Amino acid sequence: MANRKLNYLIIIAIAAVFLWFFFKSVNWNETWQYLKQVKPAYMVLTLLLVPLHLLTRSIRWKFLLKPLKSELKLGNAFAANTIGFTVTLIFPGRVGELVRPVYLAQKEKLSPGYLIGTIVVERAFDIFVMCFLLGFFLLIRPFYGSFLQARPEAYINLFFWGKVGLGLSGLLFLVILGIYMLKDRASKVISYLTRPFPDKISNKIMTFGLEFIEGLRFFHSFFRLIGYFFLSMMVWLGICFFYWVFFLAYDLKVPFVLSIPYVFLTMVGASIPTPGMAGGFDYFSKLGFTSIYGLDPNLAVGMTIVIHSLQILMTCTLGYVILWKNGLSLFQVKKLSEGKN
User: At what angle do helices 183-193 and 199-214 cross, to 10 degrees?
Assistant: First the structure.
């Protein structure tokens, strides 16, 4: 309990630091004047596009799980994603990442360990694909120079975070592939590490570990790997499209491809495990608006508050509706991440 409280305090402190930098030197009168200039039609379209990534992620997840259960219901995958993201937005520590696979496992009567393995695969591909898109953006820099005159430090930041992300995704790929290719040895390592625990606990850990390793059998097929890569591209290009439409709501007219660096930076910020992505998302969003597109900091703050609020509002509303229809509460599904029923 003490460790959990300490973790929460650290997370809150991190969020507070980022929020301090985000709100630093904001002129709220100017911010409000900027926000009133919104184009209603584009804002309504932005609102309707919030669930798009939940749908494309669900299609990708269904594809990944096809060898295990070809008749898996897309609706259950969508519900699991929506509830998982709702939990992540409300509670610290990204516990929704565990809620998603456990919820779907219960709905579809599948192995939780297997599905948690697919979440690891999903996260690795998310990082890899966004690094791929960022690399594409940086490579075509000579062609968009007339559209976008970003500050030099913006490119330095993008190159730095691109290298970090690519390095982490590459390392994660190697670990995942190594665990699967050497699964017999990995099983022995898990068995060795669980020896100090009582038999009941060690057996549970061993069973979960073996299910997790089995969940990585996705790598058996090269063509499925390519298919999953293109579905991951669909997920992230859809997210870029969502933000690009939002840009138009505030008359920020840039070619679609130029939404990529902003989305990459917000992905970095959203990966910080604070409740509701508070602080990390906001700081990196403001950084993207000001350093890449040269927006006034007050407008950048206002736009960030609006887009952040819309995502939380729509996602949590959908999540609560699904929970209500299933007769569940938010705290009940949160307990799924703790291995409780």
Answer: 160
pTM more than 0.70: yes
Structure tokens that stand for 198 in this block: 């009582």
pLDDT tens by residue, 110-126: 878 778 878 877 887 88
Long-range interactions of 332-335: CB distance < 8 A, separation 24+: 333/83, 333/87, 333/99, 333/103, 334/87, 334/91, 334/95, 334/99
- CB-side neighbour CA atoms (13 Å) of 189: 9
What are the pLDDT digits (tens) for 261-298? 899 989 988 888 888 888 889 999 998 898 888 898 99
34: helix, strand or coil: helix
Q: Which two tokens stand for residue 336?
A: 């799924």
The answer to whether residues 64 and 217 touch, using CB atoms and an 8 Å cutoff, is no
Integer Cα distance of 139 and 131 in angstroms: 12
Question: How many angstroms separate the CA atoms of 271 and 49, rounded?
Answer: 21
The position carrying tokens 């917000």 is: 266
Cβ(59)–Cβ(227) below 8 Å: no
329 three-state secondary structure = coil
- Is 316:90 a contact under the CB 8 Å cutoff? yes
Q: Which has the closest alpha carbon to 259: 243, 278, 272, 274?
A: 243
Show the tokens assigned to 292: 């890449």
From the CA atom positions of the chain, what is the Rg in Å? 21
Distance of alpha carbon 197 from alpha carbon 33, whole angstroms: 61
